[in-house]
Design brief:
Layout: E1 9-12, H1 20-25, E2 35-40, H2 47-51, E3 59-63, H3 71-85, E4 91-96, H4 98-110, E5 122-123, E6 133-137, E7 149-153, E8 158-162, E9 170-173, H5 183-201, H6 208-226, H7 232-251, H8 257-269, H9 273-281, H10 289-302, H11 316-327, H12 330-337, H13 347-356
The structure holds fe (ii) ion.
Fe (ii) ion is lined by residues 142, 192, 196, 259, 273.
Length: 357
């Protein structure tokens, strides 16, 4: 049985970001102790940037995450951080969306584990705990703040560094930080959470423990995207908790068809995870009928554009490459179709779905 672990500590609420300084202060023991902050460059020049509790000697890396994080990028961060003062930081903090949180988690692990990060793409390959690491989401939905994985695109696959050491030691959930997220992005990233729940609740890993988190997260997503009476503040408060709950639901279950195909799409075209999921989910009525119909309702209500007819510009070689990445995600297929998944699911079926996108 999976021995459930989660993030060590969580502070939630409007203004929770103000607690970050005190939380980090406890890690600063020696005069030369320093902290690494990864900040999503969408916050550059914005009020949040000046609120990051940076002290002299700290390293602030303001990063663009238009393309999902790569293993070589993590290796470069590790080299840069190790060269900063010659000693390891006492904390790594990720402030931003899912990609920034994955970067913070992966960097923390690779600071203490030898070799290249691509060697550790998979389950329980990391053997040494990472540097203390903190996640501060500024957009809700990915569940990266609470997940057991740091998803990276490597030379041959898109796969996470997945182990119990990946979990953040501390997360700060402050819905005030979500202000200013562009509408489309708010929708796409929130749908990641919605899809996590739909996928985790349907499949062979389904169980009551996971369902308790998943069904509550689903209810919160419905409030956020279908209840007209809520203010934007109420939506932000709820979606931040939904993201957390959806992530926990996954931890004790698994994602399914949408994430499998979405990984292939992101691997080949670098498509951001949230929108990639929406592009794929839009074509999965056969696999998740109720979920996809409700998704369409949400799309229509918010007037969101979901890209379609993309395959007109794809070559057969690219489609084959995406399918090759997807088919390797055996744990997703086992969850959705069962241990005998190969009898009902193959590369040709995956390619057919890509051709519909
Ligand atoms: Fe996801």
């Amino acid at each position: 049985m999976h021995n459930f672990k989660s993030v060590e500590r969580c502070v939630y609420g409007r203004g929770a970001f103000n607690d970050l300084e005190g939380i980090l202060q406890k890690r600063r023991v020696q005069p030369d102790d320093f902290i690494v902050f990864f900040l999503d460059d969408c916050h550059k020049g914005k009020p949040l940037e000046s609120r990051v509790p940076v002290k002299p000697g700290d390293l602030v890396l303001v990063e663009n995450v238009d393309v999902e994080p790569k293993t070589e990028q993590i290796d470069a961060y590790v080299a840069r951080i190790k060269a900063h003062t010659g000693k390891l930081p006492v904390a790594v903090v990720g402030i931003g969306g899912g990609s920034i949180m994955d970067i913070a988690k992966a960097t923390s692990l690779m600071l203490t584990n030898p070799g290249k990060s691509e060697q550790y793409q998979g389950l329980d390959l990391i053997k040494i705990p990472g540097v203390y690491h903190v996640g501060v989401p500024t957009i809700s939905g990915t569940g990266a703040e609470v997940s057991r994985t740091a998803v990276l695109t490597g030379p041959v696959k898109k796969l996470g560094l997945k182990c119990d050491y990946t979990y953040f030691d501390q997360i700060v959930l402050d819905p005030e930080l979500v202000v200013g997220v562009p509408r489309n992005q708010w929708f796409y990233t929130g749908m990641d959470c919605y899809i996590h729940c739909v996928e985790s609740l349907q499949g062979t890993h389904f169980n009551t423990f996971s369902e308790a988190y998943g069904s509550k997260a689903l209810e919160l997503c419905r409030d956020v995207y279908l209840d007209d009476t809520l203010s934007q503040e109420e939506r932000d408060d709820k979606l931040m908790v939904a993201s957390y709950m959806g992530g926990l639901s996954l931890t004790y279950s698994e994602v399914g068809v949408c994430h499998g195909l979405s990984y292939g799409l992101s691997y080949v075209f670098g498509t951001r995870h949230g929108i990639a999921n929406c592009i794929v989910f839009n074509q999965l009525e056969e696999y998740y009928p109720a979920g996809v119909r409700e998704f369409w309702q949400m799309v229509e209500k918010h007037g969101i554009h979901i890209p379609a007819h993309l395959s007109r510009d794809w070559t057969e070689e690219q489609i084959a490459q995406m399918a090759d990445v997807a088919i390797r995600l055996e744990h997703f297929w086992v969850h959705h179709f069962g241990p005998q998944w190969r009898q009902v699911w193959d590369v040709e079926k995956i390619k057919d779905l890509y051709r519909r996108m």
